[in-house]
Design brief:
With 216 residues, the chain is of the alpha+beta class. It contains four helices and eleven strands; from the N terminus they run βααββββαβββββαβ. The strands form two sheets. It has an eight-stranded mixed beta sheet, with helices on one face. β8 (148-153) and β9 form a beta hairpin. The longest helix has 26 residues, at 35-60. The model is unreliable at 5-15 (pLDDT under 50).
């Protein structure tokens, strides 16, 4: 695969789409869903993303990775590439999780990025390898489920893997509280793990313990 120069980020840029979200629902349809159903849908997306992340991590290393984003917190859906018309921080969300690892002897060689390209392409996903600058290569891939991977290799050997969802309609304040308040406080202290170990998504029946200032 040829290495492309330059980079256009998939996130952090406004790209106004249509009226339906990544699940094919209008805002009105999503708002009619009971909060429990919105909660369960977020959990299904979180679980699917964790499984994708686990397999990709293991292609790089089975050792301990540092968490830079847990993934269960619904981030603001406005100003994202896949935002819908009228999306705001109150009525939409997306999910994002990321991990980093320091690989002994790694130097940011393009061959390290190409190994991930081979893995992504073997899954049948649309994949791009770019040289972001003189010191960084980045691989982007879109999964069949509509999740977006980004993998970056750097000369100091600190490599990072991120996975992001598209945008969904919701009552974000209520949904955020429903998720965060069901996760035991001590689990927020977890900062690293081998691939496949992550905070399990809570059940709707779990005890609700309100927290203040909760965020990723």
């Amino acid at each position: 695969m040829a290495v492309l120069a330059g980079m256009v980020s998939f996130s952090g840029c406004a790209w106004v789409g249509g009226d339906v979200d990544a699940a094919g629902m209008t805002r009105e349809e999503a708002e009619r869903l009971p909060l429990e159903r919105q909660f369960d849908l977020l959990g299904e997306r979180y679980q699917a993303m964790q499984e994708l992340m686990t397999h990709a991590q293991r292609m790089v290393s089975p050792n301990i990775w540092t968490w830079t984003s847990h993934g269960f917190y619904p981030g603001s859906g406005d100003a994202q590439r896949w935002s819908m018309r009228g999306a705001t921080p109150k009525n939409s969300y997306y999910l994002s999780m990321s991990r980093t690892i320091k690989l002994p002897g790694a130097s940011g060689a393009v061959e390290d990025a190409e190994l991930m390209v081979e893995y992504f392409e073997a899954q049948g996903w649309s994949t791009t390898l770019r040289q972001v600058d003189a010191r960084r290569y980045r691989v982007d891939a879109m999964t069949d489920e509509g999740f977006w991977f980004e993998y970056q290799v750097r000369p100091h050997g600190q490599y990072s893997l991120g996975l992001h969802s598209k945008v969904f309609w919701c009552d974000r304040d209520a949904l955020s509280s429903a998720v965060i308040d069901r996760i035991p406080e001590e689990r927020f202290d977890i900062e690293e793990s081998p691939p496949g170990e992550y905070i399990p998504f809570p059940k709707w029946s779990d005890p609700v313990v309100p927290k203040t200032g909760s965020s990723e």
